[in-house]
Amino acid sequence: MIDLIPIAADVKAPEIDYRELSPLLALAGGSIVVLMVGLLRSPFVRRVLVPVLGAVALITAIGLTIWIWEPGDREPIIQGALSMDALALGTSMLFYVAGLVTIVLSWRARAPEEAGHGEYHSLLLGSIAGMVVLAAAENLMTLFIGLELLSIPLYVLCATELRRRTSLEAGLKYLVIGSVGSATLLYGLAMIYGAAGSMQFGEIAAAIGGDELSATDPLLLTGVALTATGLAFKSSVAPFHQWTPDVYEGAPTPITTFMAVATKAAAFAIFLRLFDHALGLTQLDWAPALAALATATIVIGNVGAIAQRSMKRLLAWSSVAQAGYLLAGVVVGSELGLRATAFYLAVYLLMNVAAFAVVVARERVSERGDDLASFENLGSAEPWLAWPMTIAMLSLAGFPATAGFIGKFYLIDAAVSGDYTWLGIVIVVGSVMSLAYYLRVVAVMWMGRFEIELPGPPRRVVRPVSGWSPEAEARAQPEVLLIAILAAAATIFFGLWPDPLFDAARDVGSVLTGLR
Amino acid sequence: MTIHLSIVLFLPLATGLLGAALPRGWARWSVLAGTLAVLAYAIVMLVDFDSGERGVQYLTSDEWIEELGITYTLGVDGLSLFMVVLTAVAWVPCTLWAALREHDRPRLFFFNLALAETAVLGAFMAQDLALFILFFDLMLVPFYFLIGGWGSGERVRATTKFVIYTLSGSLLMLAAAIALGVLATPDGGEISFALADLEQRPIAEGSQQWIVLLFALAFFVKAPLFPLHGWVPETYRSTPIPVLALLSGVLSKVGVYAFLQIVLPVMPEGSQHWQELFIIVAVFSILYGSILAFSQDNVRLVFAYSSIAQLGFIVLGIFAFDDKGAQGAVLQMLNHGLVVVPLFLIVGVVAARAGGSESVRELGGMAFRAPVLAALFLVTTFATLAMPGSANFIGEILVLFGAFEDNLVYGLVASAGVVLAAVYMIRVFQGVMHHRAGPAVESRELARLDLAVIAPLVAVVVALGVYPQFVVDRTERSTTAAIERAAQIGHAEVSAIR
């Protein structure tokens, strides 16, 4: 007994930089507090206090993130487990904003009511914490932990509308396919570890740069391929995107919003860090493969969206296509590509939030749910909803004077500068294809009644997601309207004055040294 | 460094926004006041413009998006000045025409009309490639809404087709433009899309070739030229009249204008490479447009196909790489815009007197009790078919001179277009104004207000016919400068072969 004490003293505890870890602590603490408070029975506590506490946790995290924000290459913390640099912090800002939006959109939604407010918000904060870990992961182990921490709460959140079959179905589908993705990823990570002999990104890069390991080592490349596949599942890159439309459609719409913008940002953050940093020297080997994936994703996503009547499915397919555009920024493996991807992620968040907020607003009051028909004549009926949707659609399509235009410009710029001019042209061709469905949404809203011509059999009937009742406070959703208008206004603002976002993107671009 | 161009540029948009905030009935007058102010400004600029000076004037240059090398650079030279004037002149009668009629959701309608003017003016004033593309694409948004929201027939289908066609071209151009900017950036230099910088930074001929081709694709779709005119019939059929007048009269000029202002000076070798192809496209368009114009029954479509032929003439003049040809092309750009606007407004007047019919077969006898209408139509018809005494005559002669200098065969084929123009224009005029009156036709004189819309435009057409030198003097310098480099390369190649 006495002997044990000196031995225990010899085990060196990792040094923890609590300052840099603080946003994560805020999230984890918030998650626990929210869960506990949610156990109280009072309706006021559950409906008001819990969401407010969740929002407080996120706002605290935002404040702490701004406090520790510093551009440039940063020393990883906790023995090289996490790197709270501008790439991690910048993308985590997107997660926090997406989280806040989700909390606001869930305010009067049915999902937290059925699943329990405490659980719902606690899971949401937990998922965000997972995203932050993933975006900051500096070794293969934290990468996997982050990915699972982000995914498992999301599987549950998808199924939180307990009395709707499609919601449960979405949760199960996401769980099964997500697990396949995780398994593939884990297998790939193991192979990379086997080849490089280290978990640390920095050491993997050094091993590939050294004499021991050739950049074309078959074990390493197989590992890279499997890892890319696993991440492609998460970021819905074709041909691993099949779950996206079903899950997006089935999940409660606030959760769909969250998945569409935050999960994608997290997946791309780790895409950038792993491929451009740890595997940067094998760029010549994986870049053509990723470029091919990007092309396939752009084409498949845009073609898939054309035949959709359900707005949520349409936006799901559109998010597949957008993942293809984003991948172009990863492919080039340059600092410009890193910046362009980060910039586009921010823009992507704004336009999708605007679109999804309008969908939330519509499906609460319309008998047709998220079907295009419930958007008919919205332009004259409710211009304040129609405008944000119009701006979101035009921005997603890449019209000028919106942030989407600048974002695409930046990505094409990165592609061309990285000697992938053809990929830039693929982005452009994809944008042209996307006009077919984005413009249809605009036409439905503004150009009067007309039968929407759609190929294929009618979709299965899905009950309106958030339920409809005449007594429902049909117009009592100012918070949803506010989110839609704010996001749309920001889309226009950053389309005309993108400098603030560029500054942030430049900081993000400065974190990975040794890029072209 | 002046602020004048920025004022002109954003004035329509400002009045459009103001109109959107005002009560329903007032939006039209707000926007109309904006177009009038732009016209006044344009006339003052026309007077003030120093035609002896080389390069752009009223230069406004500011950093905008540094990260991407996009600057906010506006300026006008002789060429863009007249395009700005054309825009200002065309927008006033079309807005007035619209203001005299009732529309659904008038605030949105007039806001779109105003936004469209700002976008078109921006494209003509931009001295930065990325800024030009931004405005070039932006003008699609208001036109998309105007055609889809207030058009007739299959309007949604038509407007979607129009936007997809046009944007396919211009997004490819966007990719090409970014490639141009990146390739032109010297090692360690900052990327820049300012035209002045791009002209100083030549890129390899091989890259120029495909970049020019993608640019041409965008401009040919917009113009439209054969075989990229697939959107024309449906769009022309569905677009409301005042919008159609602008679409055909002003928007079609943006692409060809950009050839002179951007493509030829920045990428002379690439332009020279495709000269033959583009001339063939132009000649085909002249023949195809003229023949189809002759066989159409709908008056709008006659003018639509005649526009294809006219734009063919313009491109022919530009790519002859000859001073006279280019000068003729510039004159034609202006002339075509000025005649097409009253022509379409007259179509609107005529259709209103024939129960909405626009078919040559069903119309007729319209001149019987409407001599003023007939006279105005006759003058514009003669101007369109390039009757000697009209500015169009001078323009087409100059273009043909240029074409003959370059290649005899193309010149001869293109001349056939002039003859055909006479045939189809006179056919329409007779079919509408003379012949036996159709069943639904009611011959009625122009309303005073409509007269006030159309007559000044016709007066401008006549004035230009009397004194085309006014335009030639002021544009000569910039036109010559635009084709200078491409022409030099052409001559050098020819003498090398000899």
Characterise the protein shown here.
The complex is a heterodimer of chains A (516) and B (498). With 516 residues, chain A is mostly helical. Chain A has a domain at 284-452 and 475-509. Chain A is built from 21 helices and no strands. Chain A has helices at 4-10, 18-37, 43-68, 86-105, 110-115, 117-136, 140-158, 165-196, 201-209, 218-234, 243-250, 253-278, 283-306, 311-331, 335-365, 378-381, 383-397, 403-417, 421-446, 478-496, 499-509. In chain A, helix 8 (165-196) packs antiparallel against helix 10 and helix 8 (165-196) packs across helix 11. Chain A is globular and about 70 Å long. Mean pLDDT of chain A is 87; it is low at 455-465 and 467-475. Chain B is mainly alpha-helical and 498 residues long. Chain B has a domain at 267-491. In chain B, strands 1-2 form a two-stranded antiparallel sheet. In chain B, helix 3 packs antiparallel against helix 18 and helix 11 (241-266) crosses helix 19. The longest helix of chain B has 30 residues, at 155-184. The radius of gyration of chain B is 22 Å and the shape is globular. Chains A and B meet through helix 18, helix 19 and helix 21 of A and helix 5, helix 6 and helix 7 of B.
Element layout with pairings:
The complex is a heterodimer of chains A (516) and B (498).
Chain A: H1 4-10, H2 18-37, H3 43-68, H4 86-105, H5 110-115, H6 117-136, H7 140-158, H8 165-196, H9 201-209, H10 218-234, H11 243-250, H12 253-278, H13 283-306, H14 311-331, H15 335-365, H16 378-381, H17 383-397, H18 403-417, H19 421-446, H20 478-496, H21 499-509
Helix pairs in contact in A: 2-3, 2-6, 3-4, 3-6, 4-6, 4-12, 4-15, 4-21, 6-7, 6-12, 7-8, 7-12, 8-10, 8-11, 10-12, 11-12, 11-14, 12-14, 12-15, 13-14, 13-19, 14-15, 14-18, 14-19, 15-17, 15-18, 15-20, 15-21, 17-19, 17-20, 18-19, 18-20
Chain B: H1 4-21, H2 27-48, E1 57-65, E2 70-76, H3 78-99, H4 106-125, H5 129-138, H6 140-150, H7 155-184, H8 195-200, H9 205-222, H10 232-238, H11 241-266, H12 268-295, H13 299-319, H14 323-352, H15 371-384, H16 391-406, H17 408-433, H18 448-466, H19 469-497
Antiparallel strand pairs in B: 1-2
Helix pairs in contact in B: 1-2, 1-4, 2-3, 2-4, 3-4, 3-11, 3-14, 3-18, 3-19, 4-5, 4-6, 4-11, 5-7, 6-7, 7-9, 7-10, 9-11, 9-12, 10-13, 11-12, 11-13, 11-14, 11-19, 12-13, 12-17, 12-19, 13-14, 13-16, 13-17, 14-15, 14-16, 14-18, 14-19, 15-17, 15-18, 16-17, 16-18
